[in-house]
Amino acid sequence: MKIFKVCHACDRIIGEIELDDLTSQNSDPIMDIVGNVAYALCTNCLHEMETKPRIIYH
Ligand SMILES: [Zn+2]
Q: Record's superkingdom (predicted)?
């Protein structure tokens, strides 16, 4: 069974993955599977998140 991998932030389709591969590897804790779509972050958004300064609450 193939599922789409979609970016959580920009809704861009990153690619297609085999659900069987995903469950056997289980290597991506960011991934959130809803129905036949796996939400993750594309490289762009991941990079943006890493470079943006964090908001610190005092
Ligand atoms: Zn993205």
A: Bacteria
Residue 4 CB-density burial (10 A; 0-12 exposed, 13-18 middle, 19+ buried): middle
pLDDT digits (tens, 9 = 90+) for 28-43: 556 788 888 999 999 9
Predicted structure pTM score:
0.65
Strand partners, 39: 6, 32
Distance of CA 21 from the midpoint of ligand 1 (Å)? 22
- Given this structure, which CATH class describes domain 2-51? alpha beta
Ligand 1 center from residue 8 Cα (angstroms): 6
